[in-house]
């Protein structure tokens, strides 16, 4: 029936169909472009996050901050050389892809471009 058509990204229904250049879900009436489905499939592979020098990061790693960072909405600064233990990799706001707790600052998100693996 529809072996090669992707499932609906909105409701996960398998009953999608083609309507011209669009893919349509009869269950929730969601329409999307076929090329978006191919791009989403390509992006769904494992995302590799690297530090400032190119080392691959993983959940639970310890990293070191490589430049002074001003904390938004506060007068505190995260100094160069601060070690951050037990990071979690996330899809955060903007380029922020590390969720962690920094001693003296608390829970925060960092960019992988301002840290290096310890």
UniProtKB/TrEMBL annotation:
Has UniProt tagged this entry with the keyword Hydrolase?
yes
Query: Which InterPro entries does its entry note?
Result: YjdM, YjdM_C, YjdM_N
Taken from the record, one Pfam family name reads Zn_Ribbon_YjdM
Annotated ranges, domain Protein YjdM N-terminal: 4-33
Q: Which residues form the Protein YjdM C-terminal domain?
A: 50-118
Q: Which GO terms describe its molecular function?
A: hydrolase activity
Top-rank lineage group of the source organism: Bacteria
Report keywords, A-Z: Hydrolase
Cross-referenced NCBIfam families: phnA
* PANTHER family per record: PROTEIN YJDM, PROTEIN YJDM-RELATED
| Similarity-based family | Belongs to the YjdM family.
Tell me what this protein is called. Answer: Phosphonoacetate hydrolase
> Which species is this UniProt entry from?
Agromyces cerinus subsp. cerinus
